[in-house]
Amino acid sequence: MTDLTTRYAPQAQGLPGYELEYILCALEWILEQEDINFRGRPPALQKRLDAELQSAGVRVPPGREGSQLAMVLLLQVAKGRYPVEAMLEASLDVLPIKRGRRTL
Questions:
Q1: What is the pLDDT at residue 86?
Q2: Would the pLDDT of 22 be above 70?
């Protein structure tokens, strides 16, 4: 982790929020949780995720299929997409949407 924080420290300098090491550790935990909980996904969504990751040059290691969705969301946000929009496209529940539908 130290190599990553040293390498990307200049790009993260001055950004609001948590320190880069904290963010990277949290991302690692989230991705591992997604892999552990993964039980499959619709073929069309899997094909879309594979294409997005391939176009970004990301190789998915064996057994890491669950975290693919989170990685694609992160890539889309890095490209400038609004996070809630990316989450909705991925069919993830977003709290404000539930409030709007009065399902809370």
A1: 81
A2: yes
